[in-house]
Write a structure and sequence with these properties.
Blueprint: H1 2-58, H2 67-77
Length: 79
């Protein structure tokens, strides 16, 4: 019985020492994942803005001289 008590004590001591290390590793990994999410969101919004400006550049040379031309273009492409 004495041997099992010592083994139990060593296991408890090891877990008690490992718990703060596991906690800190989890915090660092969580921070890295959150930073990754933010960077992906920024990249996605930047790509959307790039696509918007590309589509605006395609229609930059269009000259709208009549009212019907303007309404047709708005119906086809939207704002």
């Amino acid at each position: 019985m004495f041997i099992f008590g010592k083994i139990k004590t060593y296991i408890i001591a090891t877990l008690a020492l490992a718990l703060p290390i596991i906690y800190l590793m989890g915090r660092f990994r969580g921070a890295a994942k959150e930073k990754n999410k933010i960077l992906q969101d920024e990249l996605q919004s930047q790509q959307k803005a790039t696509d918007f400006y590309k589509s605006m550049a395609e229609h930059e040379d269009d000259i709208i001289s009549t009212r019907s031309g303007l309404t047709d273009r708005l119906r086809k492409d939207g704002l």
